[in-house]
Design goal:
8-stranded antiparallel sheet, 24% helix, 580 residues
């Protein structure tokens, strides 16, 4: 006799599981990327990853063996529908208390010359389970042209690790993905890579002076000025994982005695040294106080490709810092793009001429990318085409920390009077500029400034623009606007031009770029002569810009007018830069 224990109703017993659904071949738009839901200007907590023109490189960075034609076609909405069956999104909250919560994911396919278009949307649990978007659930729109952006929106501030997989339609295959081994940050080969970043030690006296002050418990200020990499783009959280903050922390650990080392971060995305010149006073000197900074790290090697002066602005900024309040040590930092490009070939001669220490990420990481056993792969180093990941920011910080170490090892003897009194001189004394130093004494005038020698009549530019570029400053996790006090021409305002009267030799206009079609061109006249027509739509997104509108041989009184080409358009003047 056979005895059956328990429930004898076999109809209600355990059922065999279904055969697993065969997973389609996949390629990855994001793979274990850390995202950060920061408070944005619209009041929501979100991260936006811009994709336009970047999809092929993002895919190829993760899976370099994906056919180039497929990667290129996937930048378009037609290519997405051709190759992709479904999109799988997984995310895991980095904070334990947020596991089990969710985020909203949106992939935007925009129409030509329009920010509308199809939005592929889904709610994603933050516990690592996959949410799947079936493209067949969305009608195909022939007007959709480009994969524009991914938006990840949260209910509150949090971070998460996220993967976005494109599962392919029947008939398409890609090579199997092989994950990268973890980076060994403690290995000898890693340290050798860091050592190779020190392009030039230069004159370490000013750095050594800052080290000596820090060790003695005196106040020391380290300032960083640059573009989006200095702002912290790609670092999550942006406030504490940026290369700037991490290298500041390294200095504090080596030499600080408590809270005596202070931090200034003045990075603004998409901006070159031309705008850096216009920001230096307010965002570095005013923050540092009357004694000025002790160290200034300048990072524009991947932002200055469009510099209309081909190096004059960068050289002027370096001299403005070095010979300004505090007589700080100036460090030139050369970051690098995913395509291995930067401008250190143009900018390094400036460091050589004036003895500035120079640190090159291109020298450190690029050669090993192509070795058989890279220390870190491009996929690991880069968050996207332009910005480092957390690992990349750590490497940047370690490269600067090696410079800090070298300065500490080279401390001068306290009784060496010559060394103690040196370092205050003009670093350019007796030296011809490499490209030019035209703007080293640039002054800036904005709506909040008072200068009895400058007279402004706003005319039809009597509005104030609140939709500005926002950036995270210093150690703030929240963003604040650039040039919040400004002159804006609203659509349909009075036709009277904006007028400013001042004495100057050279003149720069600081204005707002935009992707909004309601903005239009403005013409700049100096003493009645048209010198420049400014189109704020050329760049295609909301950010600050500075351009030269007048060059003169000598300082003279000038009347400058800004007129709209179309009075039914908007235009925003953020400020002016000028030399006397």
């Amino acid at each position: 006799m056979v005895m059956i224990m328990g429930n004898t109703d076999m109809k209600n017993g355990p059922k065999a599981p279904k055969d697993p659904t065969k997973k389609r071949p996949a390629l990855y738009l994001m793979l274990d990327d850390v995202i950060e839901g920061r408070l944005r200007e619209d009041g929501n907590y979100a991260e936006i990853s811009f994709l336009e023109g970047r999809v092929a490189a993002k895919i190829s960075a993760v899976m370099p063996d994906v056919p180039e034609e497929m990667a290129e076609e996937l930048q378009t909405c037609a290519g997405l529908r051709k190759y992709v069956h479904s999109i799988g999104i997984t995310a895991v909250a980095q904070e334990k208390e947020n596991i089990g919560k969710s985020m909203d994911y949106t992939l935007n396919c925009r129409r030509e010359k329009d920010y509308g278009g199809t939005n592929y949307k889904i709610t994603v649990p933050l516990d690592g389970s996959e949410a799947l978007i079936l493209l067949a659930d969305y009608p195909e729109n022939p007007l959709d042209t480009t994969l524009a952006s991914c938006r990840m929106e949260f209910t509150e501030y949090m971070t998460a690790k996220m993967t976005v997989a494109f599962y392919l339609n029947d008939g398409y295959e890609v090579p199997e993905f092989i994950p990268d081994p973890p980076v060994d940050f403690t290995s000898d080969v890693y340290r050798e890579m860091i050592f190779s970043s020190l392009m030039q030690e230069g004159n370490l006296w000013r750095l050594a002076r800052a080290v000596r002050k820090a060790r003695a418990g005196e106040d020391v200020t380290i300032a960083y000025i640059g573009g989006s990499i200095t702002q912290g783009a790609g670092a999550k959280p942006i406030a504490t994982n940026s290369y700037a903050y991490r290298s500041y922390e390294a200095f504090c650990r080596r030499f600080g005695t408590g809270s005596n080392v202070h931090f200034i971060k003045a990075g603004v995305g998409g901006t070159p040294s031309e705008l850096g010149l216009c920001r230096y006073r307010a965002e570095v000197l005013d923050e540092a106080g009357e004694h000025g900074p002790d160290i200034v790290v300048i990072e524009f090697a991947v932002n200055d490709a469009g510099d209309e002066t081909n190096g004059v602005c960068f050289e002027s900024l370096a001299l403005m810092a070095a010979n300004g309040p505090g007589h700080p040590a100036v460090v030139l930092l050369f970051s690098v793009f995913m395509d291995d490009g930067n401008l250190q070939g143009r900018l390094a001669p400036i460091g050589e001429r004036y003895g500035f220490p120079m640190v090159s990420l291109k020298n450190a990481v690029t050669p090993q990318f192509y070795s058989e056993q890279p220390i870190i792969t491009k996929r690991q180093y880069f968050y996207d085409l332009y910005h480092p990941s957390n690992e990349g920011h750590r490497i940047m910080a370690d490269c600067l920390d090696y410079l800090w170490q070298r300065a500490g090892d080279g401390i001068f003897e306290e009784n060496d009077k010559e060394q103690l009194t040196g370092g205050w001189e003009d670093v350019a004394a007796g030296k011809e500029p490499v490209y030019g130093d035209t703007f080293k004494a640039l002054e800036v005038y904005t709506k909040k400034d008072v200068d009895g020698g400058i007279v402004v009549s706003a005319g039809g530019f009597d509005g104030c623009d609140c939709e500005l570029q926002y950036v995270e400053r210093n150690v703030n996790a929240y963003a604040t606007p650039e040039f919040p006090e400004n002159w804006m021409h609203p659509a349909g305002a009075a036709k009277e031009p904006y007028r400013i009267g001042l004495t100057c030799k050279d003149l720069l206009l600081i204005y707002k770029d935009s992707g909004d079609q309601k903005f239009g061109k403005a013409q700049v006249f100096v003493d009645g002569t048209l010198t420049r027509t400014i189109d704020p739509l050329l760049v295609g997104w909301n950010h600050c810009n500075a351009v030269i509108v007048y060059r003169g041989e000598n300082a003279a009184e000038h009347v400058v007018e800004v007129k709209m080409e179309d009075n039914d358009k908007f235009f925003t003047i953020l400020g002016w830069g000028y030399t006397r």
